[in-house]
Structure formats: C-alpha cells, structure tokens
Design goal:
246 residues
Length: 246
C-alpha cells in the first residue's frame, strides 16, 4: 500500500506547482476572452478552449489537493466535453450538431461548477491571504460567469429564440453566438444591465436572475471575507510588532 501511494505521489508530482498558478490562469482567461471573437468558431478556437479547460482543471487540482478520484472525475468530464465539442464541429448537419453542441456546453458547465466549488474551498480555508488567494477568488468569479455562459449557450442551441439580439451590421439573423452569450453573462453577473441582449424564454430569464443574485452574493460574502481576513492579518502583525518592541 505504501509503495502504491509513493507511485501515485510520483505520478502527480508534475502537477505540484504553486508559484503564481492563479495569476497565470487569470492571464490565460483574459487571453481566451480577447481571442474568442477573433477566432470565432474555428478549429483553432476549439484547441484553445480545450487547453483553457485543462488549465483550469490542473490549477484546481493543485489547490484542492491531489486525489486520484478527483483527477479522474475532472479528466473524464473534460474529455467528454472536448470530444462532444469536436464532434459538433465535424458533423455539419444541424440536428446532430446542435445536440452535440448542447451536450458539450452542459459538460463544460459541470466541469466549471466542480472547479469553482473546489477553488472556493481552497480560498475560504486559507489561513494566510496571499496574492495566490486573491487571484483564486477572482478566477472563481470569472468561472461562475463562464458557467452561466455555457448554460445560456446550451439553451440557445436547443431554442435559438431564447434571446433577443440586436441587429447586426453584417446580417446573420440576430442569432446569438458563443461570444455574445459570454458577453451577456459577464454583463449580467456584474448587474450592468445594458439591455442590448435580452432573455426571452422563462428558463433563460430565471438563469439570468440566478446569475445576478449569485454575483451579488459572491461580492458581498467572498470579497468581504477577503477584506476582513486582510484586516485581521494586519492587526495581528501590528500586535506582534508591539510585543516584540516591548
């Protein structure tokens, strides 16, 4: 049993990296957001998104502890989502492609939910607030927006009339794209409410309400906890400094 644990430890050693893990993931998320409208739904974007979700998976495992059960669960969900996304791109016929695309978005949302929960457990259980902890909280916030974006896209694939879209200069029938729904998701979680994209069906309306409430709850609880933890750390440091001076 001890030999088996040693082998597993050696197998996971390549994942055991901590310096700036959430900082690089945050930078990677920003890069994906900037490149998504440029690449549109191309094979290169599919590869970038596969790397994006794999990066999220690795960073989540590095923060939550290395368990074979967690590893294989997250890898299985990531692989299913990637294969479904690739299949939807290959099969051009609308019925099959739409079903595969919707299933892919649901698999992505499941992976993101698991990762958000694990990252938040790491953040809220941290005894010391570091740059890594702060960026971990920020990454979790962004991943919540991506989770709802995937849910919106899954619904929009099944029912294109789920959203009312503004008229496009290049035409296109006002149908939502993945980038449009990501934009709508981030606008909703920040409660900006520009009103250019409007949910029309009850399911998308309820998802938008749930996302707005989640975003406000996150800011009120997680950010407040980080601020209080930083203030407590400062008070403890001042107290220790006074004790040393005495």
């Amino acid at each position: 049993m001890g030999i088996e644990n040693t082998k597993r430890a050696g197998f996971f050693r390549w994942l055991r990296w901590k310096p700036a893990r959430f900082v690089q993931l945050f930078a990677f998320i920003i890069m994906v957001m900037l490149l998504s409208p440029i690449l549109n739904r191309s094979p290169l974007l599919m590869i970038l998104l596969a790397a994006f979700f794999l990066n999220i998976l690795i960073v989540t495992l590095s923060s939550a502890g290395f368990s074979p059960r967690r590893l294989w669960l997250l890898l299985a969900v990531w692989l299913i989502g990637t294969l479904l996304d690739g299949s939807a791109l290959l099969f051009g016929t609308p019925p099959s492609a739409h079903l595969l695309s919707a299933a892919s978005e649901l698999a992505k949302s499941l992976l993101l939910v698991i990762c958000v929960v694990m990252i938040l457990r790491y953040v809220l259980r941290s005894n010391v607030i570091t740059l890594d902890t702060i960026f971990g909280a920020l990454v979790a916030y962004l991943l919540i927006a991506f989770t709802f974006s995937s849910l919106y896209e899954a619904v929009a694939v099944i029912e294109p009339a789920s959203f009312s879209m503004p008229a496009r200069a290049e035409g296109g029938g006002g149908l939502p794209t993945g980038f449009d729904l990501s934009y709508f998701s981030f606008v909703t979680i920040a409660t900006l409410g520009y009103g250019d994209i409007v949910p029309r069906l009850p399911v998308t309306q309820m998802l938008a309400i749930l996302e707005a409430v989640t975003g406000q709850f996150y800011m009120a609880v997680v950010v407040a906890w980080l601020v209080s933890a930083l203030a407590r750390r400062r008070v403890e440091s001042e107290s220790n400094r006074v004790d040393r001076n005495e």
